[in-house]
Amino acid sequence: MLKKVFTSVCICAFFVSIIFTNCNNTSKTTPTINDTIPKTETKEIGIKGSFSNQTTITFDSSIIKSFLDSFPKFKVFEKDISSFYKGRKYAYAWYDEKGMIEPADNLFNRIQNISEEGLPDIVPYKSAFVALMEAAVGTDSIAPILELMLTSQYFAYAKKVWQGLDEKQTLAMDWFLPRKKITSQQLLDSMLSGKNLLENSPVFKQYNLLKDYLKKYNLIKSKGNLAIIKGDKKAYQLNDSSETVGAIRERLFLLGDITENNQSNKFDKALFNGVKNLEQRLGYKEDGIVNATLFTELNYPIDKRIEQILVNMERSRWVPVQLKSDYLLVNIPEYKLHVYEHDSLAFKMNVVVGKDQNQTVIFNGDMKYVVFSPYWNIPASILKKETLPAIKRNPNYLAQHNMEWNGGNVRQKPGPNNSLGLVKFLFPNTHSIYLHDSPAKSLFNEDKRAFSHGCIRLAEPKKLAQYLLRNDPNWNETKITVAMNKKVEQYVTLKATVPVFIAYFTAWVDRQGKLNLRNDVYKRDSRLAKMILENPGL
Predict the structure, then answer these.
(1) How many domains does the chain have?
(2) With left for phi above 0 and alpha for psi between -120 and 50, is residue 509 left, alpha or beta?
(3) Alpha-helical regions (H) of 256-370
(4) Confidence of residue 163 (pLDDT cuts 50, 70, 90)
């Protein structure tokens, strides 16, 4: 029978996470509040059912080598497959005394619908796999080739769906955050435990939330391209009447921003609230007015929205395991800092990030120091391009800007007009990135806030200082205020370091279940989408 199955397979054809310098390149615990970026969580993402626990039906170990010779792409898993079956004493895992068990069909269905995972339908030896599964329908016979095909496909599926692109590829995308790793040992432990597959593997909650929206947006796409909404004036607001208003209402109903389409062409209160909901999801001021910017968002191609969801599902594959400690998270496209305590949001604030030519780096570090009334040591790039030419044009430039020579460099002295404001927060890193105050307060009111040379400016720096020093008896709000305005630089070492993550997500689902979308400020999404499509999977 083994020979017969090998022959049929061959006929069918042979296929799855500062240095203390400046930007160069560039009290009581606050109550928990709702957030836009949900906390990192683990969730059981298993293939339903468990392996057969039978021990009497076995196969000869030499079959593994014969199988891998016929399906060489799976040789990358040879050690894993051998370890798995050796641990089972070569007992069949996908069969029991009655034939193939249910998890085999569950795995097959997952692989058949791999596009639902936001991935191209590229499965190793797919035609052979399909043929073997179809041949098994209605029979209780045992096929060793199908047994090994299922195990190999499991490893391939896990690698592609839950691990994602190779770490070298993510580094090429300038993603320097630590990758979640699903090791072969984790997979084997899950398999050998007899529990649901991948039950113990770390999975970022966002992945499955985005996957649900991928289905919704694919359903919208299946009904045809969305018509372009054209207006006959610049903006529409409450109480306006127009056929365009009716088209806006229909689009918001389709996107889920309103729950009912009453077919009215009048801009009523329900539509007003729906527009505000859309603005909130997209990161705009919630004024309920449909202007030119919002028209652009309403007419954004559905294919591009799907791509946006796909690439952020991929980024979710890279996210490390859940954090139990306090930590800070900056999401660059959102222009927000999220402060977490015991993995629950304490508060959040607006930030300014690097402009496109001085991009803020995606990485992580450990916050160690708070520096009150800091000097600004002007980076070499800014000194060469901006400061020195200004000094040549104006001999009084240094005095006018509260600057001084410091050896062969120039620095700005502490004070309210210092470019770093009244406080900065250091987490030593090779990218020379840190968080700091800013005298340019008006920028925090802009919808899009990519204005810096790479560092991250904070809208409420004093609030962060109070939070970081909340457990230090030497500091309270009054002392912090004095230190920020003393005009004498003062370093404070935190009693415990705090992890800082600088991330890049242009799509996520918030705690209210709403799909949030942001502009791809650094033009990264399309490049990542191309890498996903070109990824062979093994």
Answers:
(1) 3
(2) beta
(3) 269-282, 292-298, 302-318
(4) confident
Task: Indicate the burial class of 230 (C-beta count within 10 angstroms; 0-12, 13-18, 19 or more).
Answer: exposed
Report pTM.
0.80
Rounded-to-integer distance, Cα 468 and Cα 116, Å: 42
Q: Which residue has the tokens 């954004």?
A: 300
10 vs 25: CA distance, rounded Å: 56
Assigned token pair, 373: 């009334």
Strand, coil or helix: what is 254? helix
Question: How is residue 161 annotated by DSSP?
Answer: I
Distance separating alpha carbons of residues 257 and 512, to the nearest angstrom? 12
Looking at the fold, whether 165 and 232 belong to one and the same domain comes out as no
Residues 379-392 as b or e (16 or more Cβ within 10 Å = b)? beebbeeebeeebe
Close Cβ partners of 365 (under 8 Å, ≥ 6 residues apart) = 18, 427, 428, 429, 499, 500
Is 153 contained in some domain? yes
Q: What is the CATH number of the domain that holds 459?
A: 2.40.440.10
Which residue do the tokens 């070109």 mark? 534
Compute the Cα dihedral for 297, 303, 304, 310 and give only its sign. positive
User: Considering Cα of 296, then 213, then 514, then 506, what sign does the dihedral take?
Assistant: negative
Contact by Cβ (8 Å): 169, 88: no
Residue 232 CB: number of other CB atoms within 10 A? 8
Domain limits at 342?
323-375+414-505
Task: Output the CA–CA distances (angstroms, integers) from residue 119 to 113, 192, 310, 531, in the order listed.
Answer: 10, 28, 8, 11
Q: Which two three-digit tokens encode residue 68?
A: 């891998």
| Terminal C-alpha separation, the chain | 30
- 283 and 332 part of one domain: no
Altogether, the residues listed in the chain come to a count of 538
Q: Taking the C-alpha atoms of 474, 480, 484 and 488 in order, what is their torsion angle to the nearest 10 degrees?
A: -20
Do both 347 and 481 map to the same domain? yes
Each residue's pLDDT tens digit, 242-274: 999 999 999 999 999 999 999 999 999 999 999
Q: pLDDT band for position 90 (50/70/90)?
A: very high
Q: What is the pLDDT of residue 190?
A: 56
Q: Which of 42, 298, 265, 16 is nearest to 151 (CA)?
A: 16
Only one residue has tokens 């918001």, namely 252
The answer on 347 and 243 residing in a single domain is: no
- The position carrying tokens 């359903």 is 219
Using DSSP, how many helices (H) and how many strands (E) does the chain show?
19, 16
Token representation of residue 386 = 């901006």
- 257 and 187 in a single domain? The answer is no
Tens-place pLDDT, residues 408-467: 899 999 999 999 999 999 998 888 899 999 999 999 999 999 999 889 999 999 999 999
